[in-house]
Structures are given as structure tokens and as C-alpha cells.
Specification:
Blueprint lengths: L2 E8 L3 H15 L5 E3 L7 E10 L3 H12 L5 E11 L7 E5 L5 H15 L13 E7 L5 H9 L3 E7 L1 E10 L2 E11 L1 H4 L5
Antiparallel strand pairs: 1-3, 1-8, 2-6, 4-5, 4-7, 5-6, 8-9
Helix pairs in contact: 2-3
Length: 194
């Protein structure tokens, strides 16, 4: 059975993506050894599924559709800049989504628990909404760390109307993402665009 690398995600608006791209350009000037995520590849991952049998995609979509039908569209604001796991040993540079609505967390946690029923391991930590903008490849300077600590970032707000099932193909030049299925939230199904 053919397997594909998949994940469940929410797409960003072009304006949020543009602001993140500008932030990345600013941070690139420090010439640290960081692999920057292409702006077009930045999205909010709700759950990474990994290698998935293609035959399971429709079943996954059905489960997500059942969850999405319980939720109205909502908006997310993107702001703040930080690192995982900590400033002493940063590995990932992210922008945040503070004050995310409870519905976002609920959707992510329901996807996690419901997909566990068909064989996808449950996450061992609570869902923490963030957008990965870069991966640190070598130790970074103290000056760069200070810049991240002090940099105020406001990426704006965008509306969430759907959840995507995405395919990820790894290439030497970076990952290429393809949308497999788009699942609308409740008011989009009813044609009630806010």
C-alpha cells in the first residue's frame, strides 16, 4: 500500500504570510546558520500524521469533517516571536498565536484523540499554536538571541474557514506541500459567510 507524508493544517492569509516574510528577511541579515521556512510553506499544523496509507485519507477527512461541522469560522491573530525549547539552546524560531480562541485548541485536541482511534499516536504534550519560521542549524550569537527576545512582532489577523489535509514531499531544495482535501467549518457548509 502506497504511503504519503501527511499533516492536518490551517492556511494563513497572504497578508500574514507577507509580514512573516518581512520579519524573516530582517532576521536573515544577521547571517546566522538558520534554515528559514519558505513563506509559502508556513501554516498552522494541527497534527502531523507522518507516513500515511493513501487509502486512509478519506477516512481521516470524514473524521475531521465530523469535528469541523461543530465549529463556526473564527479569527486568529499572529504576534510575538520566540524559540523552542529555550533561549539557551534554541532549535526552532516561531511566531506565536496568543489569545487563540478555545475552539482552535478544542479542534486540535479532538483531531488528535479521534485520529488515535484509527492508529495515529496521540501527542504527549498539549497543543501550542505557533508558526515555525526557521530551524537553527548551529549555535547562534548572543546578539541574535537578544534581538529575538526584544523584537515585537505583529503579523495581523486572519479568518479560519477550513481545515486542510496536506501532503508533504521532501526534496533537497525543501519540502513541497500539496493540498489533498479541504474541509469547511460549519458556517461555510451552510453558505453563511461572515
Amino acid at each position: 500500500m502506497a504511503k504519503i507524508r501527511t499533516f492536518i493544517a490551517i492556511e494563513l492569509s497572504d497578508s500574514v504570510r507577507q509580514k512573516i516574510a518581512e520579519l524573516q528577511e530582517e532576521l536573515k541579515r544577521d547571517r546566522e546558520k538558520i534554515s528559514w521556512t519558505k513563506p509559502g510553506n508556513i501554516h498552522l499544523t494541527l497534527k502531523f500524521l507522518g507516513d500515511t496509507e493513501e487509502s486512509k485519507i478519506d477516512r481521516i477527512a470524514g473524521i475531521i469533517n465530523g469535528i469541523a461541522s461543530d465549529y463556526q469560522s473564527f479569527s486568529l491573530s499572529v504576534s510575538g516571536l520566540g524559540v523552542f525549547p529555550n533561549f539557551r539552546r534554541p532549535r526552532v524560531i516561531w511566531v506565536g498565536m496568543p489569545n487563540s480562541p478555545a475552539s482552535l485548541i478544542e479542534i486540535a485536541e479532538k483531531i488528535d484523540s479521534n485520529l488515535a482511534e484509527i492508529g495515529f499516536p496521540q501527542e504527549d504534550k498539549r497543543f501550542s499554536p505557533h508558526l515555525t519560521i526557521g530551524r537553527v542549524k548551529a549555535e547562534v550569537s548572543n546578539g541574535f538571541i537578544e534581538k529575538i527576545k526584544s523584537r515585537q512582532f505583529d503579523g495581523g489577523e486572519f479568518n479560519v474557514n477550513e481545515i486542510l489535509i496536506m501532503k508533504s514531499d521532501l526534496h533537497p531544495a525543501g519540502a513541497v506541500y500539496t493540498q489533498l482535501q479541504k474541509i469547511a467549518l460549519r458556517n461555510q457548509k451552510e453558505g453563511l459567510y461572515e
